[in-house]
């Protein structure tokens, strides 16, 4: 960012950088479980191109599992597709039309695994980094 005063011959510049997390560019999209399964189908047009990144989350004592899953959903800007007693699936799409599929598998009242699939491996890895940062202190 540069500015120049009326009496100054040369502008003064200050380095300025604004970094947005990748999740900023994800939009939550409502899908039926069947439609999501079609996207994941390995014999379909999208399934074979999906790349996966994953992590495990261990919550500190006193942190609520359900609230933690909601926090992850909010952070990643994804929509719940399906809930079962042991897992929750989410879906979103980037502004570049890239798929973002998140599966959280509940391991215990204080831990769960997160797997993110996208047709862009860098996006999936970056979103996992956001998940790790979200729960680093949890």
Structural features:
138 residues, alpha+beta, two-stranded antiparallel ribbon, extended, six-stranded antiparallel beta sheet, 25% helix, 3 helices
Low-confidence stretches: none
Radius of gyration: 19 Å
Helix content: 25-40%
Order of helices and strands: EEEHEHEEEEH
Strand pairing plus helix content: what structural class?
A: alpha+beta
**What count of helical segments does DSSP give?**
3
Q: Mean pLDDT, rounded to whole units?
A: 92
| Amount of beta strand | 25-35%
Distance between the termini: 37 Å
Question: Would you report the number of β strands?
Answer: 8
Reported for the largest beta sheet, the result is: 6 strands, antiparallel
Q: How would you describe the overall organization of this protein?
A:
- The protein is of the alpha+beta class and 138 residues long.
- Helix content is 25%, strand content 33%.
- Strands 3, 4, 5, 6, 7 and 8 form a six-stranded antiparallel β-sheet that branches. A two-stranded antiparallel ribbon has the order 1-2.
- A hairpin with an 8-residue loop joins strand 1 (2-3) and strand 2.
- Helix 2 packs across helix 3.
- The longest helix is centred in the C-terminal third of the chain and has 15 residues, at 121-135.
- The mean pLDDT is 92.
């Amino acid at each position: 960012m540069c500015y120049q005063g009326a009496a100054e011959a040369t502008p003064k510049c200050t380095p300025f950088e604004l970094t947005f997390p990748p999740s900023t560019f994800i939009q939550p999209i409502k899908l039926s479980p069947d439609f999501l399964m079609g996207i994941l189908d390995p014999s379909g047009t999208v399934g074979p191109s999906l790349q996966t990144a994953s992590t495990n989350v261990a919550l500190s004592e006193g942190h609520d599992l359900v609230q933690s899953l909601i926090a992850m959903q909010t952070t990643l800007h994804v929509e719940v597709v399906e809930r079962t007693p042991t897992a929750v699936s989410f879906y979103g799409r980037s502004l570049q039309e890239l798929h973002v599929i998140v599966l959280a598998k509940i391991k215990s009242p204080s831990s769960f695994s997160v797997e993110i699939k996208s047709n862009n491996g860098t996006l999936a890895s970056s979103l996992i980094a956001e998940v790790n940062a979200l729960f680093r202190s949890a």
